[in-house]
Specification:
about 170 residues; alpha/beta; five-stranded parallel β-sheet; 5 strands; about 45% helix; about 10% strand
Length: about 170
């Protein structure tokens, strides 16, 4: 069976999408309103269909999360995720988002996530954060700064938007 069947068109031609995830995906696996989408997404990663990217900032959020959320992340095989570095380049791009007022300093962690994913050339960011990340005007703002700084555009989507039959 073709493991690509069921993936959204944005991932066409990508053998194993590299998708940056924030803590909301792991915590979503323990929330009745988000569990189905998070679980399906994480199952695809565990099956080797998706490479999860996290950063040290995400790891700190996971380590500070309730035990049942930590168990979701640490229950995944180590081979299905990669931790990317937070470098000076990431900090500079994060600061550019804040200076452009895409987000405020109160949402520095969200800006760091987007910067880390952008610098790592992730295929997308997956998050349930519809206030600061998965929101059309925020996505346009992040991508405007990315273009100005010489980076490519980045899709920021919900876990359900990874799969054709769940897109909503």
């Amino acid at each position: 069976m073709d493991p690509r069947v069921g993936f959204a068109p944005r991932f066409a031609g990508i053998e194993r999408p590299r998708i940056f995830v924030d803590n909301s995906v792991f915590s979503g696996a323990r929330d009745p309103g988000f569990a189905a989408g998070s679980t399906r997404f994480l199952d695809a990663a565990e099956a080797g269909q998706i490479e999860l990217l996290i950063s040290a900032a995400v790891r700190r959020e996971i380590d500070d999360a309730p035990k049942n959320v930590r168990k979701v992340f640490y229950g995944l095989p180590r081979a299905c995720w990669k931790e990317i570095e937070i470098t000076d380049e990431v900090f500079a791009l994060r600061d550019a988002y804040i200076e452009a007022r895409v987000v405020t300093w109160n949402h520095e962690a969200d800006a760091t996530h987007v910067a880390a994913a952008t610098v790592a050339r992730a295929d997308a960011i997956v998050s349930w954060n519809q206030t600061e990340l998965v929101k059309a005007n925020k996505i346009r703002g992040f991508n405007r700064v990315n273009r100005l700084k010489g980076y490519g555009e980045l899709d920021i989507i919900k876990p359900t938007e990874v799969f054709l039959d769940e897109m909503a």
